[in-house]
Each structure stands twice: as C-alpha cells, then as structure tokens.
Write a structure and sequence with these properties.
The complex is a heterodimer. Chain A is an all-alpha fold. Chain A is built from 13 helices and no strands. In chain A, helix 9 runs antiparallel to helix 10. The radius of gyration of chain A is 22 Å and the shape is elongated. The two termini of chain A are 36 Å apart. In chain A, 49% of the residues are buried. The N and C termini of chain B lie close together (8 Å). Chain B is built from twelve helices and no strands. By secondary structure, chain B is mainly α. The chains are: A mainly alpha, B mainly alpha. Chains A and B meet through helix 6, helix 7, helix 11 and helix 13 of A and helix 1, helix 6, helix 7, helix 10 and helix 11 of B.
C-alpha cells in the first residue's frame, strides 16, 4: 500500500513539472487534436475522402485551387483534400501506434533480458542491436517490405516495428543494468521469486519512464517513415488517404503551379511529428530521463 | 593509438557480418523465382534450370550462404536480375553522385548548424534564438521529400532562380536544392545540439576565468567555449551519416539524382534482389566506416579520451 502511494506521488510530481513546461503542454494539445481529428474524422470532414466530386460538382472541381467550398482545394480526381488530410490522420496514427506496439513487444523483453542477465546473452542481444542500428533506417524498412509480395498497412507497421525496436531495447537494457543490483531486486531474489516475475513485475515498472519517453519520440519518426514509404510507393496504396501518398501523387502538378495537393499533407505531417516531439521532450524533462538521441 | 584503431576495427567485423547475414536471410526468404524474374515469360524449363544453377539457387541454403560470403570477401556482390550489370560496378558508378550530395549537405549542415547554435546560445532568449530554434524544430519535423518539393516549388517553379530536377555534373546550380534538402535535418539537429552544449559550457568555471583574465568576449566564445562545445557535435555528425543515407534515398528520388539511393529504389521497384542486397550492404558498411572514423578522430579532438 505504501509503495503505491509513493509511486503515484512520483507520477504526480512529474505531471506538476510537465504542466509548467509550455512547449510540453503545446505538444500535448497538438497530439490530442490529431487524435481527436482521427477519431471523429467522419464527423469533421466536409466530404467523403475517396468520393470523386466531379459527378456532383462537375469537371471544374478537378485540381480546383483552395476556395470557400474546398479549403485546401481538390486533387485531379476531384476529391476534397481537406477531407483526405483529416482521414489521413487515421492512417498515420494507426501506423504510429501499431508500429510502436510491435517495437515494444520485441524491444522490451530483449532489452530486459539483456540488461538483467548480462554475460553472453547481453553480448548477443547487444550485437543484434548494433547490427540493426548499422542499417539506414528507411532502407532497412524498405528491404523488409520487399520480402512481402504486396505492401499493405499491416506490412508497413510490422516492418517499421522490426527495425524500430532497437531504440526501445537500448533504453530498457540500460535501465535494467542500473536497477538489477538495487536492494529491492536483491530482496525479490532472496524471496526466491521466479526470474520472469522479478523482471516484469519488480524491475520493469521502475524502468517505464524512459520507455514512455522513447516510445513517444519514436512516434514522430515512425509517422515520418510511413510517409516516406508511401511517397516511394511502398506503403499505403491508392486510394488510401495517406499523407505521404498524397504528396507523391501531387508532386507531378507542382511545376504547373498546382501546389495545394502536395503541400498541405506535408504540413499535416509536420504538425503531427512536431506534436509528438514536443510531447516527448516535455515528458523527458518531466520524468527526468536522460536519453541519448 | 594504433592498437586502439585496430581494436575499433575488430569490433566492426561482427557487426558487418551480422549486417550481411540479415540481408542474406531477407533476400533468400523472398517469395518468387529469380530465374523467372530474369527471363520473364520467355524462359523454357532448361534455360530456367541453367540460370538457377548459375546463380547457385539449386544449392542447399547453407551452401548458398557460404558461396555468398566467399563472393563478398572477393568483392563480388552478384549481378543484377534486371540487366546483368555487376552490382559492384553499378554501386561504384552511382556512389560518386551520392557522395558529392552527402558531402556538401554535411558541410552546409555543419556550417549553418554550428553558426546558428553558437549565436542562439550567446544571445539566449533573443529573437534570433527563438526564430532559429523554431526553424530548427520545424526542420527536424518536416519530411525530407516534402522540404525538397517545397524548395522546388518556390525556387525553381515560381522564382525560376535555379533549374528544376536533374543532375548535370559540373553545373553547381543543379546541386543547390538537393544539397539544401538533404542538409536541412542535420543542420537543425546540429544547431540544437550546439546551442545546448554551448549553454552548458558557458557556465563552466574556466569560462569565468577566461573572462576574469580580461579576454575579449569573442576570444572567450571562439577559443574557450566553442572548442569544448563542439566535441559532442562531432559525434552527431557521425551518426548523421546514417540519416543522410536514408535521406539520400528520398532526395535522390525527387531530384532524379543518379546516386545509390535512387539505385536502391529502382531495384526495389523492379524486385531486383541482388541489387537491393548490394545497396543495403553497401550503405550499412559506409555508415560503419563513417562511425569508425568519428570514433578515431574523437581522440584527436578530445584530449580527455584515453586509448586504453
């Protein structure tokens, strides 16, 4: 019981520190706005994201510049870009969340085992981490995707997760190394608790703060990677309203001065990545975590 | 010193072995028959069988692996499924363009990033500080390919100050936008890091001593503070090489730049697995070598580093 109130006290103190940080609050607000937009997309979006409005509004709705009716203009198929960007938040967050889950599922156990066990197990896992780190992130994800016959959203988040876990594993490993000789771990060992219970029930909760920070900061780079994959044609496929795909489709028309198709989705990516970066930085300061980036 | 360098190089060997092994596994579990891929629908069964034998695809997997490693040690990365070009030759022809792009992007990023970081730290909480850091955080959060397209839209298609996409060796105007595009992110990271390191260094006792001696502020900043603040910055330049290579994949695609990044994308589109394998291994090795150089040069920059 006493332990519980102490730990909630730590989180409460972190929240007090977080609240004082303006950029952190801005990040929280921005991230919350993206999440809400994604959840309530059908209610907010003025049009259907895949509906080609040429049938209802006529041919002039193709690549129409931003107007009162279509705030961000329309694309060559006469689809409303604002509505596609609103629905695109779903794709980005979905990939961000699922790829993070995959990263956690791989990175947390491997990092924990490496840090707790030490010895050759640690050497082996650390070696694997160094190997994956040696690949240029995007290129390695592309190589993993190449293994699957056809790119789908599931392939994309699994591939990103398979590469992204190393950052999580590093953080967890470092935490376990610094915690494994603490008294409460000694006590748990002395009680004869099984190893799995010591790792996951006693040490892991104490190692959570840096994992949360790392996962939050990772959201930004995952969303950026998804956009890059879609841009290259290896991620979301048409007519999915993926932001990266929209930039790719719209780039052909830039030289004709039709900028809105490619430029607005980029702003959406920037806004979302910025949100998670501010939020992650704020969490890091609030939870007092030292991370190597 | 020498034994330190040798030891660092030996550390890299198991990592490189891991890299090539993972790439080998990935490219081997890929579904589809490479012989069919090479011949298309034309291949009769005998030709297909001959190609499979040529490529060693009829061997058991562990034999394929040892053959692959042996070839690799001899500098042979196989031939492209697409046009029978040697993968190594393709990499060598394309690497020059990537190297030029990455080199100038890094130079630009280092100059701009360090300058902005120093001024931001010295004039902390000034308008310059706020706007520089705002630009930096935006630069980190914007996708590389979108920055490239934005630059094209503004400077090539609207203002007509520079030519559009393409690569003309020797014509520096074609370099401007790709170099800026690729340099934005590292510049932003370097600026942020330089600023925070400078702020930390500026509170040190030896800075107060330098000022107390009556040295001019410029000397204090340049000679006493910056020199020490730059040490972590050098490290990040090493890690940025990996990001730069990832960024090159996208930048080269936008600007029709005939480098290794675009080669990789073309190979991926064509499902040309030897070429994919070659580009990925090549880039990972470049990254490891770059980090090795940073590790070694660290000793020269930071006298506190010991080699034992």
């Amino acid at each position: 019981m006493a332990k519980k109130s102490r730990s909630s006290g730590l989180w409460y103190e972190a929240w007090l520190r977080f609240k004082r940080n303006k950029l952190a609050l801005l990040g929280l607000f921005m991230a919350a706005s993206v999440i809400l937009i994604a959840i309530f997309a059908p209610l907010i979006a003025p049009y259907d994201p895949v509906e080609q409005l040429i049938w209802t509004e006529g041919r002039q709705v193709r690549l129409a510049s931003p107007s009162v009716k279509h705030w961000m203009g329309t694309d060559i198929y006469g689809r409303d870009i604002l509505s596609r960007i609103i629905f695109g938040a779903r794709i980005s967050l979905q990939i961000g969340i699922f790829a993070t889950i995959v990263s956690l599922l791989i990175g947390v156990p491997l990092g924990a085992i490496a840090g707790y066990t030490g010895g050759w197990v640690d050497d082996l896992i650390s070696w694997l981490i160094n190997v994956v780190f040696a690949f240029p992130f995007l290129l390695f994800v592309l190589a993993v995707i190449a293994v699957f016959q056809s790119p789908s959203l599931r392939v994309v988040y699994i591939a990103i997760g398979l590469v992204n876990w190393v950052g999580i594993a590093r953080v967890v490993r470092a935490q376990f190394i610094s915690l494994r000789d603490r008294e409460f771990v000694e006590a748990a060992k002395a009680l004869g608790l099984p190893r799995g219970k010591i790792i996951f029930k006693h040490i892991l909760p104490n190692a959570l703060a840096p994992v949360i920070v790392q996962a939050t900061l990772g959201m930004g780079s995952i969303i950026m990677t998804e956009a890059g994959l879609a841009f290259l044609g290896f991620g979301a496929q048409p007519p999915t309203p993926s932001w990266g795909l929209m930039i790719s489709e719209g780039q052909k028309y830039l030289s004709m001065g039709k900028w809105w198709w490619a430029i607005f989705p980029g702003l959406a990516i920037m806004y979302t990545v910025l949100a998670f970066n501010f939020l992650g930085d704020g969490l890091r300061d609030a939870l007092d975590v030292r991370l190597k980036r | 010193m020498f034994s330190y360098i040798v030891r660092k190089m030996l550390y890299a060997v198991p990592v490189i072995w891991g890299v090539v092994t993972i790439v080998f596994i990935l490219m081997t579990i890929v579904p589809g028959d490479p012989a069919r891929l090479m011949m298309g629908q034309r291949g009769d069964p005998e030709t297909l069988a001959r190609i499979r034998a040529d490529l060693g695809l009829d061997l058991p997997i562990h034999k394929q692996y040892t053959r692959f490693l042996k070839d690799l040690v001899r500098g042979d990365l196989g031939v492209s499924y697409r046009n029978n070009e040697k993968v190594v030759d393709a990499l060598m022809t394309r690497f020059g363009a990537t190297l030029k792009l990455a080199f100038w992007a890094m130079v630009l990023a280092a100059l701009l990033g360090i300058l902005a970081g120093v001024v931001s730290a010295v004039k902390q909480y000034s308008i310059f500080d706020y706007s520089a850091m705002f630009i930096a955080i935006s630069g980190i959060s914007a996708p590389v390919f979108w920055v490239g397209l934005l630059l094209l839209l503004i400077f090539a298609y609207t203002l007509h100050l520079v030519p559009g996409v393409g690569y003309v060796p020797g014509d520096w105007r074609y370099f401007i936008l790709p170099v800026i595009t690729l340099g934005v992110r590292p510049a932003a990271l370097i600026a942020r890091l330089t600023r925070s390191c400078m702020l930390e260094v500026l509170t040190q006792d030896y800075i107060r001593t330098a000022r107390a001696k009556g040295l001019r502020e410029r000397i204090v900043i340049m000679r006493h503070a910056l020199k020490n603040a730059l040490i972590p910055v050098v490290t990040i330049i090493g890690t940025q090489v990996a990001e730069l290579l990832s960024g090159a994949v996208l930048t080269e695609t936008i600007f029709a730049w005939p480098g290794v990044g675009r080669l990789a994308v073309e190979a991926l589109i064509a499902r040309d697995f030897p070429m994919i394998r070659g580009t990925v291994i090549f880039m990972a090795v470049i990254f490891l070598v770059a980090n090795l150089i940073v590790d070694i040069s660290y000793g020269f920059i930071d006298p506190r580093i010991r080699y034992d």
